[in-house]
Write a structure and sequence with these properties.
Strand order of the largest sheet: 7-8-6-9-10-11
Structural class: alpha/beta
Helix content: 25-40%
Shape: elongated
CATH topology of the largest domain: Rossmann fold
CATH superfamily of the largest domain: GTPase HflX, N-terminal domain
Number of helices: 15
Order of helices and strands: HEEHEHEHEHHHEHEEHHEHEHEHEHEEHE
Largest sheet: 6 strands, mixed
Number of domains: 3
Distance between the termini: 58 Å
CATH architecture of the largest domain: 3-Layer(aba) Sandwich
Length: about 500
Amino acid sequence: MTAGSDGARPDSARPDDGLAFGSAAEIGAGYELGPDGPHGDESGAAPGGGEDVDGDSMVPAGAADDTHRGAFGEFGATTQAFIDRAFRERIILVGASFPPHDNQLVDEHLDELARLIDTAGADEVARVVQRRQTPDPATYIGKGKAIEIRDLAESLDCDTVVFDDELTPAQQFNLEKVLGRTAIDRTAVILDIFAQNASSLEGKAQVELALLRYRLPRLRGRGRAMSQQGAGIGTRGPGETQLEVDRRRLVRRIHKLEAQLRDVAGQRETQRKARHRHTLRHVVIVGYTNAGKSTLLNRLTDAGVLAEDRLFATLDPTTRRLALPGGESVLLTDTVGFVRKLPHQLVEAFKSTLEIANDADLIVHVVDASAVDPEAEIEAVHDVLRAIGADDRPELVAFNKCDLSPPPGTVRDRFDASVVMSAATGEGVDALLAEVARRLRELDALVTLSIPYDRGDIAAAAHRAGQVVDEVATDGALRVQVRLADTEIGRFEPWVVDGGAASD
């Protein structure tokens, strides 16, 4: 994907700020090499597979018959979409291993990156692993290795090189000078996927904000864009450069999006207060991307949420009412999936969405039992929960996809009262609901109220304040059995005839 000479698409520019921004890949790689061009006069080995002299694996994953340049950056073909789905871009994946070297961990991360690339609409054709003592501050992997990757990319006719770790703006710029093609990182790929999948106005605003925050430190002047604008009438000096104009417009757009999302956060706070007024407990589903969260929500509530076997199929939270086996009703919310190395821009931009977990009475943590390393995925989710301050919420771990693979015993043993289930087949879902009901009941006290018939206001207040389990008309009064939070019991003390302690 190619931006225009100033990094904007004139045909889609926003009327409020004059700029429109492309995909994460465009944001990460919209540079021009300059008059000297790539380092074409430098020599280096052109690996065709196997191991290089340093023992670094460079394994082609295959080759295609047709040739094309991709839509990711300055060196790609012009396209109006985030990822041009008319063809599959050809991608080289690059990982780095630093002491203590863990080849298995690097391979797992690259496997996940390959899935991200596939979700974005591209194909992996080779992967490279560089082993170093420390990252190179200029090119991350070292200039020599970058030249080898350039030669490999030319031999395989690859469009883009994707790095598993986040690159600094300087590293990204230097790599593109050496590679002669787009160089992006995992962060840019994830941002691009989010941009493709965002559907709600809030989701689109959150993604755009993350994209702009990613682009801001990567703005560089390109060719004529570095030329200075004419100064105003009656002024002296050369005026602003195009780079300065772009930066100012970008910052203005960021501020506008931040203000819009603050308004959304205020609306969510209003919704939170409304939930408390209705006294319904709130259960939030979290988990690694593609763990089966949306499938579980659909099975429990017939929500009709998009559930596909791909990463980040769901970005917008969905809340539905759920009836538990004991008759209690709760609110059940599905959230965006998490991933290892989740870009901090996304965590920050999606904070208003993710903070739903902060208000949860119970977090149902869905884990893909068939994953290669479910424990690492669990830790990635916990990292995000810590980042948003929701790590103190009660948690119920549900090992999903048991129809494909049972959860490792060592992992399951870490969690008390965990549940094994399959959201796709329904196996174990009843056990999950029973455990959710039990956990929520532990939060409330089951009390019995004796309310005179002339105090209908008290009966109505009991319905508002808690979950009424039973209601019987006796000779002298209305006996109401209700589950109340500890903070609510004092309001009804004159009418309490039984209970007052937390119940199982």
